[in-house]
Amino acid sequence: MIEHAKILAVDDEPHNILLLKRHLQILGHEVVGAENAIVARAKLDRSFDLILSDVMMPEMDGFEFVRAIRDNPEFDDIPIIMVTTLAEKEDRLQAVKAGANDFITKPVDPLELQVRVGSMLRLKSQRDDILHYEKDLSSLVESRTIELQKALREVKKSHQDTIIHLSSAAEYKDEETGAHIIRMSAYSAVIARTLGLDEEEVDLIHKSSPMHDLGKIGIPDHILLKPGKLELDEWEVMKTHAEIGAEILGAGASDYVNMGAIIALSHHERWDGSGYPSGLSGEDIPLAGRICAVADVFDALTSKRPYKEAFSVEKSLKIMEEGRGTQFDPAVLDAFMASLDEILTIKEKNVD
Ligand SMILES: [Fe+2]
Fold it and tell me: 169, exposed or middle or buried, with CB in 10 Å at 0-12, 13-18, 19+?
């Protein structure tokens, strides 16, 4: 209920306005008078809680005035009471059609005026409450959405941190360093982008490729850390790291883990079908696996290992070119070669 309402009273008889003022001001309301509909429209703004309008007025009559207010979305929720001598059903119907909410007949009875104004102000107050509630609700939804997005970003970030730490656990045992997974995953992202994959797919490959050798965690140290060349049976054990990685990652609920499993399983497949573990060939090998194969081999060639020195970029590129169409997907190798400037920048920034 509005205790101190602002009411617009429209009547061409000054005496009638004075009467309304007298009856309503003692109730604590403010009454603004207007001698005709034109003046009333000029005075009207959102601060008014109620309009009391005469019907018979020169220039613009009460019906027309009410219609004009109802046609304006800014004021269409302000209650209007028509103050009229008309008691005919037809006229009341016309007033309702125009958009009036209630009627008071002249001469105005103070008690009737008080009751009808009170009920209209209650209506207005309920509408205002709903409006405020809607406003509050939409700002609440907005702020909660922002919070939710922030939380989602944090979950994503901690998810990625977990991947990096998990992958580092495997690297810890290996001769390879943490810089290897950073370089290799960055190379993979560059190749994916050059191939025209969208940013979401590029990000997925970037964040998942660090898991490619996770399965090495399951390879015995005497094989994994052997300084010299592996015996044939040792090599067979070493090759199982692809499947072990895919098994560890399994079918996870996260796109990153799922992609990690795909990459772990397919990064040693070869374009000509002579790779492992499945001997897939051509486009049967998942694209992410073909991309990571190029990135992984380039990094292995250009890095120092216990059994070899780091090869020069020129020598490494020559070896990779020889694998075109046999070891590597030609299109992926082309994308790698086309992005060489970017690849070498990553290499220089992430030395062991
Ligand atoms: Fe591997």
Answer: exposed
pTM of the model: 0.62
Secondary structure (H, E, C), 30-87: EEEEECCHHHHHHHCCCCCCEEEEECCCCCCCHHHHHHHHHCCCCCCCCCEEEEECCC
Q: Are residues 214 and 326 in the same domain?
A: yes
193 C-alpha to ligand 1 centroid (Å): 22
| CA distances in angstroms from 326 to 320, 336, 337, listed in the order given | 10, 16, 16
Which residues neighbour ligand 1 (ion) by CB within 5 Å? Answer: 213
User: What is the whole-number distance in angstroms between the Cα of residue 236 and the centre of ligand 1?
Assistant: 13
Which among 87, 119, 138 is the end of a domain?
Answer: 138
Domain span at residue 184? 174-349
* Residues with Cβ within 8 Å of residue 334, at least 6 apart in sequence: none
- CB-count burial class (<10 Å; 0-12, 13-18, 19+) for 139: exposed
Half-sphere exposure of 136 (CA within 13 A, CB side): 6
Q: How far, in Å, CA of 38 to CA of 44, rounded?
A: 10
pLDDT, one tens digit per residue, over 190-229 is 999 999 999 999 999 999 999 999 898 888 888 888 888 8
227-236 pLDDT per residue, tens: 888 899 999 9
For residues 214 and 293, membership in a common domain is answered with: yes
Report the separation in Å between the CA atom of 25 and the middle of ligand 1, taken as the mean of its atom positions: 87
Residue 155 is assigned to a structural domain of this protein:
no
Report the amino acid identity of residue 196: G
CB hemisphere CA count around 322 (13 angstroms): 7
314 CA → ligand 1 middle, Å = 23
Q: How far does the centroid of ligand 1 lie from the alpha carbon of residue 45, in Å?
A: 74
Q: How far, in Å, is the centroid of ligand 1 from the Cα of 252? A: 20
Segment 83-133, tens digit of pLDDT: 887 666 777 788 888 899 988 888 889 999 999 999 999 988 988 888 889
If we measure between CA atoms, which residue out of 189, 185, 192 comes closest to residue 335? 192
CA pair distance 101, 68, nearest whole angstrom:
15
